[in-house]
Amino acid sequence: MRTDEPELVDHHCHGIRRGEIDARAVGSLLTESDSSPPPGTSFFDSQLGFAVRRWCAPVLGLPERAGEAEYLERRRELGSAEAGRALLAAAGLAVLCVDDGFPAAELLTVAEMADLSGRPARRVVRLEAVAEAVAASGGPAAGFAEAFARRLAHECSSPEVVGLKSVIGYRLGLDFEACPPELSAVVTAAGEWLRASAGKAGAAPLRSEVLLRHVLYTGARHGAENALPLQFHTGLGDTSLHLRRVDPLHLTAFLRQVQQQGTQVVLLHGYPYHRHAAYLAHVFPHAWVDVGLSLNYVGASAQRVLSEVLELAPFGKVLFSTDAYGLPELYHLGAVLFRRAMAGLGEEAVRAGDWSAGDAERVAHLVAGGNARRLYPRLGC
Amino acid sequence: MRTDEPELVDHHCHGIRRGEIDARAVGSLLTESDSSPPPGTSFFDSQLGFAVRRWCAPVLGLPERAGEAEYLERRRELGSAEAGRALLAAAGLAVLCVDDGFPAAELLTVAEMADLSGRPARRVVRLEAVAEAVAASGGPAAGFAEAFARRLAHECSSPEVVGLKSVIGYRLGLDFEACPPELSAVVTAAGEWLRASAGKAGAAPLRSEVLLRHVLYTGARHGAENALPLQFHTGLGDTSLHLRRVDPLHLTAFLRQVQQQGTQVVLLHGYPYHRHAAYLAHVFPHAWVDVGLSLNYVGASAQRVLSEVLELAPFGKVLFSTDAYGLPELYHLGAVLFRRAMAGLGEEAVRAGDWSAGDAERVAHLVAGGNARRLYPRLGC
Amino acid sequence: MRTDEPELVDHHCHGIRRGEIDARAVGSLLTESDSSPPPGTSFFDSQLGFAVRRWCAPVLGLPERAGEAEYLERRRELGSAEAGRALLAAAGLAVLCVDDGFPAAELLTVAEMADLSGRPARRVVRLEAVAEAVAASGGPAAGFAEAFARRLAHECSSPEVVGLKSVIGYRLGLDFEACPPELSAVVTAAGEWLRASAGKAGAAPLRSEVLLRHVLYTGARHGAENALPLQFHTGLGDTSLHLRRVDPLHLTAFLRQVQQQGTQVVLLHGYPYHRHAAYLAHVFPHAWVDVGLSLNYVGASAQRVLSEVLELAPFGKVLFSTDAYGLPELYHLGAVLFRRAMAGLGEEAVRAGDWSAGDAERVAHLVAGGNARRLYPRLGC
Q1: What is the pLDDT of residue C1?
Q2: Contacts of A312 in chain B (CB under 8 A)
Q3: In the predicted model, is pLDDT for residue B374 greater than 60?
Q4: Most CB within 10 Å of its CB: which of A20, A96, A260, C63?
Q5: Residue of A nearest to C348 (CA)
Q6: C33·B308 Cβ contact <8 A
Q7: What are the domain boundaries of chain B?
Q8: Subunit contact A312:B298, Cβ cutoff 8 A
Q9: Strand partners, B232
Q10: ipTM field
């Protein structure tokens, strides 16, 4: 990172996988697929894989574009901790906002991510994970709604929490009925869920449409009242989602509903519906669009995808993130691919006379971190 | 405009806002949002805003890419009329086809637009506005259908009328039931609407699904019989529409229905579904695709968006327009961004050997105005 | 074709139109429209038409970018057979996999395509055509399911057969109910179809939702058991389809269902939903994405469309094809536009440092034919 480059606020990422991981695990973290690579193929044979070899190999002391086998061997030699430290340092992130709501035992915690990166880390609270924690601790169905609200408030009372996140896109799709459910329906659904979870180690994953909507609308209000923006998974993700159902435009009615109460809504990823997300950020003052995850996956095409987002999105509403998960490579790639795409896009616009050099610098600054600092008042660093 | 450049037929635009407007109003006309810019942002911080500073500032005597404050101050000094005249002259449009169906009092009329621009202006009749005028003048529900047909015929009897327009996409979506309603249903719906409008200054906005379909199918037939192409709003627009419901592909069944009767259907804007609109223009001989509005909004990316339209659209079915509304800047930008995108695309294709120089010139001529002259037989200038 | 260029396996094409064809027929084979070109336009005025003039004219002894009239005249002089031979030789395909399930009398057969091209030709069996052949030969409704299975097995027993194809997208859309129908429903539907077809020269086209699903699921299983990948028409096609209904994402549930049994699913064309198809190839190990047809239609923009596919698609799951139909020009164009797009994309990535020269060569090899050789074990040449 050159010192005149804008600071990067990673407003949405996850933890790194704990301990040593083998070549197979590295590959599996380079894809959204939950299967092994088909015979004769490698997950390294993709824009993301090529980007790892190009940008991460030098960080680990190899030449650019080192081969897959060489890269994996070098990574093994260094060990996870050293590779992780090197790659996170290279990323040069100013602050990391970690969604720790996913199967957490195998991932580094927020505090550990701060340690490893040497940068401040903040926490994003996943609504469904809070609900699952409530269900895991039992209690009567009639008290679920109150217990959830209490627990959510408790979790968010920590100063390290800067935002909320919903994965209703994964669990149900974004084409949910856009209204909070009746309380009586919540009680009934909570009863069924609690019974299904009884006697198990943790709660069954939250999949009830009624409860997902209840949790979402409760979270949206809590976010509005506590300056916690609400992030949504939209667009590409792993095998368990139905891509058509996570088109961010499905959130149109929801956006209208929460506009007055002041919920700030962040549309994560979006790809291949990123132009749709940009449209929502254009027409709704409380909608924001993120470019994380997609830039990593499209690698050499990152500039085009970023440019498509910036067609319609107001420059004050676009957010950098890495959405890195599991592999330290992904934090570095997220940072470097964004920096390069943003710089390339700006240089092209300046060369064509469309933007001034100052314009390009200012837009880069906004997207890299300025917008996030405005959006997340509790960032505090 | 160089004299060897193709003439621009603006087959779809609106009137300029009447009188002096303040900085806030200028900003609000640079976005499809109906809200104020969120704190810390400006509607000038967008591809469209940057394009205004780049292309319109010199027309008003400022350097290219002048700052927002400087631009607004200069605009105020000059006054709306002088700024308007300068920007419209710079646009160099051959003829303007003005849809005057939107809240007209605050916008210049067709005749006033002709005066200000010094160019011939023609009129596009908005079907829903005609229906609302009929409703505003009262009359029995049983006579609504006949009164609408009579009024439509009357409006269109003026030689200045060159086309029709439907905003059913805004009012209902394009995913309407693709058949004209029964006359009895029209009478019932008209009765409800007339009662709701009674005693008010004008009619309540037309929102009845039955009446919107009746008005549309009546207009489609009238257009076929009177050489008046029917324009549809599709794709991006203001906050009141649901973008998913204005995907032009929703018009597939309608297109099949009106093909034999000879209605020419113009798919306006289309973005981000412009490739879908281009597909319809490819397979249906009576479907046409427009590149207005989107080129303005995407600014520096106009060439890519135009190029995406030209992937599948027959070159003889693509139409330039500005879709400018309210601000004289938008007519100039629509013209200059189209000219530049078209020229850039042609130069690239010629450099790559894909097109001959004559091909590039001919395609530019078709899209700029040649296709519109073929499509709108009543243009007459 | 330079000798160091990767061999092209055309895993999906059709036969050339038999005999001499006039200028009108040539034009009609340059479009997916089933109408005549609207007055004042020509089907040559499109990216595809310009590409024919650019790439095919020299093969027929004309200068690059010869005019339409000159091109048609030269074609007529040479005659279909000589033009066909010249264009197929120029295409330089290693092997052609011909879907011969479309109105076959007017098209060259698989064997005739091998003769004309001088290259091995293989056959792709269209499931719906097999069902229609069964229906045409009569028999009781109760025996339809068995007769279909027997006939399919018989057809596929020929060593020239390398794959299966479904056109359920055309007949019904891909948004079919994702489960095989009950056998009793199959019998009922077969009865209706057989009665409707009785006394006619051939069977009525298969349009029954029940039978289309039965035929599809039977084919999927047969394919899994016999190493025959199952191709699906998705995305753009002729006027008879509804584009929204052939978004490949509609196949998500089907893909999940056939994953365990081992059916390999090939998503043909895809455009303008090609990023969606690439996503499916990314997350599902048994999904593959094809770039045929779309590259021909978008002509000068082929590199961008190919690049969009390669954003998310694993490089080991992308397949070249021509999807050429009727005109020998389309085989040559499919080959040359793919080669150029792939080479251009690779060169750009190498110049930017994103890929090594070896990477570019390897990806080109995979997409051109290496992936097809892995996917189609019965290719055998």
Answers
A1: 44
A2: 47, 236, 271-272, 297-298
A3: yes
A4: A96
A5: A300
A6: no
A7: 8-20+80-375, 23-78
A8: yes
A9: B166, B267
A10: 0.97
Residue numbers in B near C270 (CB within 8 A): none
Q: Distance between CA B13 and CA B88 in Å, rounded?
A: 12
Range A337-353 average pLDDT: 98
Q: Are C248 and C214 in contact (CB under 8 A)?
A: no
Query: CA dihedral in degrees (A51, A54, A60, A61; nearest 10)?
Result: 180
DSSP letter at B204 equals P
pLDDT of residue A1: 44
With CB atoms and an 8 Å threshold, state whether C41 touches B314: yes
b/e for A12-39, b at 16 or more Cβ within 10 A?
Answer: bbbbbbeeebebeebbbbbbbbeeebbe
Mean pLDDT of C227-235: 98
Tokens 């693709």 — which residue? B178
Sheet containing C318-319: order of strands: C8-13, C93-99, C121-126, C161-166, C230-234, C265-269, C287-290, C318-319
Q: Do B283 and C238 touch (CB under 8 A)?
A: yes
Taking each helix axis from N to C terminus, what angle separates B357-365 and B328-351, rounded to the nearest 10 degrees? 160
User: Which residues of C, range 249-288, sit inside 8 Å of A by Cβ?
Assistant: 249-250, 252-253, 275-276, 279, 282-286
Q: In this predicted model, what pLDDT tens digit does every residue of C184-205 receive, in sequence order?
A: 999 999 999 999 988 777 888 9
Query: Which chain A residue's Cα is nearest to B301?
Result: A311
Contact A283, C293 (CB under 8 A): no
Q: Lowest-confidence range among A351-365, B2-16, C144-158?
A: B2-16
Length of chain A in terms of residues written: 381
- Å between B297 CA and nearest CA of chain A: 6
Q: Report the half-sphere exposure of C223 (CA within 13 A, side-chain side).
A: 31
| Residue C312 amino acid letter | L
Q: Is the CB of A283 less than 8 angstroms away from the CB of B40?
A: no
Q: Which is nearest to B249 in space by CA: B287, B207, B217, B218?
A: B287
Nearest CA in chain C to A35: C285
% of chain C exceeding 70 in pLDDT: 99
φ/ψ (deg, to 5) at B356: -80, 165
CATH fold of the domain at B8-20+80-375: TIM Barrel (3.20.20)
Query: Mean pLDDT over all residues of chain A?
Result: 96
Using a CB-CB distance cutoff of 8 angstroms, which residues of chain C are in contact with residue B229? none
Return d(Cα B222, Cα B209) in angstroms, integer.
20
pTM above 0.90, yes or no: yes
The answer to whether B365 contacts chain C (CB < 8 Å) is no
Q: Searching chain B, which residue's CA lies closest to the CA of residue C43? A: B314
The whole-number average pLDDT for the span C26-34 is 96
Structure token pair of residue C301:
């923009």
Q: Count CB atoms within 10 A of the CB of residue C159.
A: 10
Say if CB B155 and CB B193 are below 8 A apart.
Answer: no
Per-residue pLDDT at B78 exceeds 50 = yes
For C71, the token pair is: 């091109």
Across A190-204, B88-102, C289-303, least confident range:
A190-204
Which A residues in the span 171-190 are in contact with C, Cβ-Cβ below 8 Å? none
Which pair of tokens denotes residue A306? 């970023």
End-to-end CA distance of chain A: 19
Residues of chain B with Cβ-Cβ distance to C31 below 8 Å are 282-283, 314
pLDDT digits (tens, 9 = 90+) for A102-145: 877 899 999 999 999 999 999 999 999 999 999 999 889 999 99
| Closest chain A residue by Cα to residue C282 | A33
Is residue B290 within 8 Å of residue B256, measured between CB atoms? no
Q: How far is CA A247 from CA A83, A106, A235, B97, C175, in A?
A: 36, 30, 6, 35, 17
Helix (H) or strand (E) holding A186: helix A183-197
B partners (3+ CB pairs within 8 A) are: A, C
